[in-house]
Amino acid sequence: MANQQVDKGKTSVTGEAGEAGKVSARAPWGGARGRVLAVLAVVLAGVMAFHRGVPNAVGRVGSLLESFLPWVGVLVLLLFVAALVRRSAVALVAVLLPVGVWVHLFGGLLLPGAEGGGRELVVVQHNVSDENRDPAATARALIEAGADLVALEELVVPQLAVYEKALAADYPHHVVRGTVGFWSTYPLSGERLVDIKPPGIAEGWSRGVRAVVDSPYGDIAAYVAHLPSVRVGAGGLASERRDESAELLGRAIAAESVDTVILLGDLNGAVEDRGLAPITSRLNVAERGFAFSFPASLPLARIDQVMARSATVGHIRTLPATGSDHLPVAARVTLG
Description:
Elements: H1 2-25, H2 35-49, H3 61-67, H4 72-86, H5 89-106, E1 120-127, H6 135-143, E2 149-153, H7 159-167, E3 173-177, E4 180-184, E5 188-193, E6 208-215, E7 218-226, E8 231-233, E9 236-238, H8 240-254, E10 261-266, H9 277-280, E11 304-309, E12 311-318, E13 329-335
Parallel strand pairs: 1-2, 7-10
Antiparallel strand pairs: 1-13, 2-4, 3-4, 5-6, 6-7, 8-9, 10-11, 12-13
Helix pairs in contact: 2-4, 2-5, 4-5, 6-7
């Protein structure tokens, strides 16, 4: 009988220990856990909020960060999941900080665009690629967008003749200078080359053009530009020539006498990239839509841009892939 009582006591003690183990396994949402995650959250919030403070002197790290700044949101999401797994209230509260910063910077781009108004132009921008094997199909795809203006880059012989022929019926007015040009449903005048060639590039490099569009809403100075390419390597971001070209383009736009300006082009940079500041400081950028356009196989950044002065660039979106390594982008521009 005594043995049975002892056994019962052991059973009772064991049961209590088991319950304690269960309680331990389900540790409460304590404030002491997840401090590393909380610190990381604060750092990410600071990087996004003060990205202009990231130095650009070595490897242009600041510009590299800004080129992919929206994707920092993925890191924030991973921190949120990790905080849930660690059951850390401190980390979850801290993650709200970078979430708020990301929403402040990019949340508006997720909102639907406003309904189209009367004083509006639809524009399409596309780097068609000098290696495009089916320019005729690319031209047909662009026509389906129903745009008023179509800007193209990397126009080379003999592809140029294909675009001119395919677009002629829908766009009777066009201008080409060097490897860039645009097609318009409205008459054009004042066509001229825009010199955005940075020092050190050989003569014959021509990637800028300007013309005045005689639209139903008044004259519009339309610019098409293709800035020099950038490269990412062991030394960071090589964007010196792109930045120099952006400065030249910014000066040309600042000197433009026509009030309303629309810029379309492959600028080889995101609008957050400080290297494009000579342009973005003078023009309005798209208010809605991410429209990541490059590379076409896995779009990570929008380097194909539509900007405007004395006008608002509404929703911007990508169009289906063509034979190019870029996706076309289409935007609605509302005139003031």
